[in-house]
Every structure is written in C-alpha cells, then in structure tokens.
Design goal:
The chain is mainly α and 141 residues long. It has four helices and four strands. The strands form two sheets. A two-stranded antiparallel sheet has the order 1-2. A two-stranded antiparallel ribbon has the order 3-4. Strand 1 and strand 2 form a beta hairpin. It starts with a strand and ends in a 26-residue tail after the last helix.
Length: 141
C-alpha cells in the first residue's frame, strides 16, 4: 500500500496516481468543469474574466493549461510560454518544435544506451569463498 499526504488538504490517502485525495480531486474537477464551460461560451475571455466568472484562481487555470487539460485556441488572450524556448503556446509545457527536438534527443540517448556493452565485473584475483568477513569486536562479548 502506498500512502501519501494530499497536496491540497494534507490528509493521508492511498496513492492512486494523483497527488491529491479523492475529495480534493472531486472539488478540483468541479472547478475545472466551470472553467471549461465558461471558456466554451466565451472563448476570447481573459484570464481575469475567467477567474472572476468562475471563482477559480488564475494559478489553477494556468495549471489546467500546463497539465494539458485545457487547450486555448489561437485567438485566445490566455497563452503560456514554452518552458524551453519561451515561444507562445496554448496548452502543455513545451511547444511542438521543442517537443520534437527533445523526443529525438531522448531517442538518440536510448539507442546509444542499448548499444553500449555492459562492463565486465572487475576481477580481483581473490576467491570470494575464501574471503572473511571483517572482525566484529562486539560479537565475542
């Protein structure tokens, strides 16, 4: 069993892949739905308008965008910056160019790791069955 503390309320809960307990996640999902519905009705709204209309903090709205739960269109006043190059994006953490570059780099590293031979264990010239354990002074007392 894997237990953790909820990032929102601090209660201990059985970890199920989320960093918040079910009660807090339910409340978070309700806030998400309010934001999503408001943006569907008013797609050109600013972050302050969405915050005022839905009573959801701008920080949480931006978190929904970073997580990829919300995606803004190109006409939206709400945008994010790519964490790698600073380009304007409408959802997630990275622009498509940086995502592609990082994916290629990661693939190259993975292929390189597969082709590198594993080193042989060093041979000391000593037979491990003849080696003694270190002397324990307290053992004989």
């Amino acid at each position: 069993m894997n237990v953790r503390n909820c990032k929102v309320c601090g209660k201990i809960f059985n970890y199920d892949g989320f960093n918040v307990c079910r009660a807090c996640r339910r409340k978070q999902d309700e806030r998400f739905q309010r934001v999503k519905e408001y943006l569907r009705e008013y797609p050109g709204a600013s972050i302050n308008e969405v915050e005022d209309a839905t009573d959801v903090s701008s920080e949480e709205i931006m978190e929904f965008l970073r997580e990829g739960r919300l995606e803004m269109d190109e006409n939206s006043q709400i945008t994010l910056d790519c964490e790698r190059c600073g380009a304007k994006i409408f959802t997630g953490r990275f622009c498509s160019k940086c995502t592609s570059e990082m994916s290629k780099s990661l693939g190259a590293v993975a292929r390189g790791m597969q082709s590198v031979p594993k080193p042989e264990p060093k041979k000391t010239g000593k037979d491990p069955s003849l080696m003694r354990a270190p002397y324990d002074r307290d053992r004989d007392r």
